[in-house]
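re the bet — no i am not wrong, look at it urself. input seq straight from the record:
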Amino acid sequence: MRWFYCTVAASLVLSPRAFPVSSPDIEIRAERLRLEDEVFYSSQSVSIEKPATDEHIGRTLGKLPGVVARNHSGPGSLTSAITPQALGASSTAVSIDGVPVPDPAGVGINFSLFPAALVEAVEYHSPFYPAMDATSVILPAPGGRINLRTQGARIGTGAEESGGRRDLSASLLAGSANTLEAAAVYRGGRDGADWVIGGGGLSTRGDFPFRDPVSGARRVRENNDAAGAGGLARYRKRVGPAGSVEFTALSSRLDRTNPGPLDFPSRDHERDTFHLLGASYHDAQAFSPEAGAFAKLAGTLSRVQNEISPSLRTDAHTFGGYAQAGTAWRHGSGESFFALDDLEERLNDGTGLYARNTAGFTHSTAFRAGDFRLIPLLRYENSSAFGGVADGSAGVARGDAGTGAAIALSAGYQHAYAPIPAVSGYNAGGIAVLPNAGLKVERDAVTALSVTLARERYAVYAQLFHDRVMNRAAFVSLSGAQARYQNVPSATVLGQTLDGRFYPRPELSLRASATVLRAWDRGSGHEFPYKPRVQGMASAGWVFDSWIGVSAEEEFLGKRYINLSDDQTISPLSQTNLRVDVRVARTPGTAFLKISNVFDRPGSVSSGFPNPGRTFYLGCRF
């Protein structure tokens, strides 16, 4: 599987920062030469819109303040993420367009399964996000939630668009390890409706040199190919003066060879597939000018096929059904939000069927008093596998990030079972269904303080958080072929994040981000795996005469443990990336050259997985 087909679909894109080049019925718009990521802060939430400088989605996830993204071997390889308040990737809730995604693998969602070109934004929401946004349809989660927002139809649907308009964008990337990636997105709109169709494909051999940290010898990561393709279709229709219905379909497939670690190569081949089909309805004035309604219905189907050896194979199917309905209304003192939701998870891994149904409701009301808002939130869930649990929080916010400044203080108590989906695992040479029956109810006492300040030339986001956890379920590797969930009776997560963007001059953009974190088992004093004490990044970009730009980026991760049961650690990691962007003459497109890990040519080994050294990527976007 050295080379694989790459799917390229035509697409049409409209950017608010673009200038038009018109033809009779197709309008192609060139994006402004943009070197910085568009980072947006709100109370307890951070998002990166239309990533500017990344060759795969793992790079973008790692730029969210405090979020640790584990990526091995570059594009197409396994990428999982840990949010600041989650103790592992399996404790990080993941959604796509607000639809919870069940995890069939047990160690966190593999983000490389979703083509980066089909994702318009990555978002991190803290446990208090729904309380801070009373009209949110994103479910709360004890460890925080990452939401991937797929490419949307940004064509206007007003009367001025009744004549129809279409926009097209396409991209091509080639680079080290025989990487080839192509994608295209097509958008259109007509008579109160708009749509988007996109597709992309990836092929990479993944054979790259790295340095053995023990012997110092240079080795090669062989037979580590990846190939895949994905497609997206969305259609939105305006209903009434303030409403719309939308239909979404997303499908992707990824094949990987030799996906396991070097020390314990437990799998020879893995094939992942994912499908999402859903519909949603929003109307801000469904009942009256002050009262609106929304509804969402979706189904997800994923499959993980592992070939551990010629004689041992596993095949896990996971189905997730999701329904949500609610109402939001504005009143004299603020706004309120009420929603009912239901999540069905079913796993069949060949040894039996594990099923869990979780029904819940969320209610939040914001009371306004001058510049202040008091925001209580209550959520109750009933699980067919465990029983009923509840959690609540209260927040106080002053100002609004949308107006330039905001400060929010939140505190909550969560009494819930950890959101562990059905999991297939390996135990004593056979196949077992996890989690184990001994898991107990989890209790979290979380406090967070966030400050957002935005001005014309700069924006700053700061957050302090403390989480006292009782009975957290942690995914622990026992060996190369055995893993399980176990209870940690008492744990603490303590951290602070500071993130800022600065524009000293119109042609110069700067960004810096740092998180200092400690998460440890209070019983043993041992720190949790893959949670670095310090994480940070800094970037700078300069545009010369609007046609050429140069940017540099420095990333840093501190020392991390790799398990709860030993003292093995991953050494601190620092990486420098350089990029040059050029406006292609007489076209509405750009081309770029990127060099990753400039000063570490051979790379290194991280917990049995090699991290690539110096790599090169050449790409273009039209």
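see?? The chain has two helices and 40 strands. told u. also Helices lie at 57-61, 129-132. so pay up
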